[in-house]
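Example 3.2
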Amino acid sequence: MSDVVALVEGWVEAMPEGTTSERVTPSFWYVRIPGTNRSWIPIEIDVGERSVKLTSHVIIEPDEAHADVYAFLLRRNHRANGAAYSIDGKEGVLCLVTRIEHETLTDERLDEAVGTIVQETEEVFRTILAVGFASRFKKR
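Structure, written as tokens:
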């Protein structure tokens, strides 16, 4: 497992300028990637026994139209490339999650997984805001 940790550590250290990272534990990193529709895209990278799990907290639980937001994300799951939407069991946060088995882990696979998370977040963020938080944005 130490070779997997070393690979992830090297990948995190080589991230482009403008990104930030923090090594929380010897096998867990928190990175922030700048976005357009969402200013920062947070990604947790957790090296487990058999796989590396990447989790991004896309947005907090919607205030309203829960069924519409969840249906939208389930439809996105159907076509998502390697990442799936989920609900964090502790706080109700809407997340994107993907796993990479140790045997297939490379810098390129990490790039691809993070790229998918960033692209998905950028594509859905404003829609979730418009549907799930509409009351916050209505003119009074």
